[in-house]
Structure formats: C-alpha cells, structure tokens
Design a protein that fits this description.
By secondary structure, the protein is of the alpha/beta class. The protein folds into 2 domains: 210 residues, Spore Coat Polysaccharide Biosynthesis Protein SpsA, Chain A, CATH 3.90.550.10; 92 residues, no CATH class. It is built from 13 helices and 11 strands. The strands form 2 sheets. Strands 3-2-1-4-9-6-10-8 form an 8-stranded mixed beta sheet, with helices on both faces. It has a 3-stranded mixed beta sheet with strand order 5-11-7. Helix 4 packs across helix 12. The radius of gyration is 21 Å and the shape is globular.
Length: 343
Amino acid sequence: MNQPKVSIIIPAVRIGKYIEEAIKHYENLEYDNFEIIIVVSEENFTDKKLSDKIDIKIVPGPRKLSAKRDIGVQLSKGEVIAFIDDDAYPRKDWLKNAIEILYRDEKIGVVGGPAITPEDEPFLSKISGYIYSSPIVSGNIRKKFTLTNESEHEYDDIHGVNYIVKKEVFNKVEGFKGLYQYTSGEDSLFSIKIKKAGYKMIFSPNVVVYHHRRTIFFDHFKQVANYAFHRGFFAKKFPENSLKIKFFLPSIFLLGIVSGAILSLFSDIILKVYISTISIYFLLTFIFSLRLNPIATILTALGTFFTHLTYGFYFIKGFLTKEYKEEEKYYKKMILSQKRFNK
C-alpha cells in the first residue's frame, strides 16, 4: 500500500517550548508522507521556521481548541488527519502503526491509542501521570494513560490528544461543528458522531504519543475539575459514551465520605464501618501508589484521594447544571470566527 498523505494538526495557544522540543520527534517519524499544520491563537501568531527537514505550516486561528482543529483540516492536503496536542509528541512508529490499522478495513474511521507520561517529565508532573495511570483512579480507561498488555479493540471514546481519522470520515460528520463541540469533552462528542455514521473506532496500545502532565497540585486538580464538570453535563446530554457507572463512582465516593462522617456521629456501629471502609480505601490507595521514592508514593496517594473528591464534586455540579449558557455563547462566537477565518 502506498503511504497516504497524513496531515498532523496541532492546535496551540502559541509556539511554546513543548512544540519546539517535539520537532525532533516528528523529524524522526518512521513515515515519510506527512505535513504538520500548527494553528495558533490569532493574537500569538508568528511565522516561525521550526524545521528544515519537514513541511510545517503555522497559521492563525480562533482561540478554542476544536475550532483550531477545524481550521487545520480545512487547510490540510492529507487523506488522513492526525490530531495531537501541543504538549505532546509521537513515538517514532506512531503514524506507521496507525495507518496499518486505519486501512485494514473500510469501515474503520478512527484509530487512537495511549498518551503516556514522558520518562524525563519533571517530578511534580510525573505525580499527575502516576495518578491518571492508577487503576484505582482510571479503572479500565487507564489504558489511555499508560502502556498495557491489551490487544487492539473497538472503543467508543478516543481522546483528542491521539486521534487519527480518515479525512473523508471527518468531512462526512462535519468535523467538530455542533453545540458543545468547542469545549472540553469535544473528543467524546466527536466520537459519538463517528459511531452514529457507522464507522469503527479502534484503540491500539501500539499507536503511542507522549503527553506532558500538569503539575501537582493546583494545575492537576483544575484539569480534573474541568474534565469532571463536562463529563457530568454530558452524562445527561450525550449518554452514548458518558452515561456510565464508572464516571459516577467518584461522586458516590464523595457522598459516602460526607454522609458516613455525619451518620457516624449518631452510631458507633456506623462509625466502625466507616473507619474500616476508609482504612481499606487508603490501604488500596497506597498499594497502587507505591513508588521507589517514598515522597512520590505519599504525593500520589494524597493526589489520588483528592482527585476522587474533586472529580466527584464537579461531576455532580455538571450533572445538575441544566443549561450551560457560556458554551452556547462560545458556539455562536466560534461559528462567526470560523466564517472570518474561512474568507
């Protein structure tokens, strides 16, 4: 099979250090036929030369991430679109492995894989990576954050940091256009559109990118809160891949912590059960947080506990939100913005 041309789309606020560091990884890809389109926020646009070896275009775009992706696709020349974030970089066999899977079956529309924490990540960012890859935090979706022994399989919720899609499929579902597509969780909504169009989405542990993490504690919890709010909101609006018990578990845990503490004031039996349950939880938390560095173990364990509480609270908040007017305003603004950039 001749190599189909791949357009790698990178949405970014600006050309930052992670993009500049990632160039060498794109230059070393075991795939020859590709271009890179970096769509930066208009106010930060700079036509900076990043490589003498590969085709890189930097173009201005709207502020919202998915609107940038739409702009990038419109400017692309490839038969395949590969989405990756500006704080991520690919393993050298990324495209080669993805294309082999993508063209195995005409009904396969999307291929994705894990976004793992780089080995040389700063210590406080590694803690965030440890938390996301913990079975007690991510359960069966930890495959998105670490290398596992799973075989490739169909999946209904590929994440946007590592999302390879046939361009004809992208165009058929009209890309990211649609209400709520321009905010966090847009990759989940895009995946729903792909599935409804009748295409398979394949998750492969061999289609790998490396993803820099937020630092513990503030940035990590801010990200968790954002993810949780939108997942809770989408659980009502888009149940296809969001109305699942695994997303409700942190909220159930949070309610158990609060209600158990209150009820323990009135019953010694409840107090004993409560203390026993909490003790088992923290034991499991520390077991799954064990690292060679004791400080890393303690921070991972504490981070796990507060990640559960943060996700649980903001999931409930999102679930109880009837309408998200801010997102509706963003949607209308992005439509106008895209029309301006399409001229």
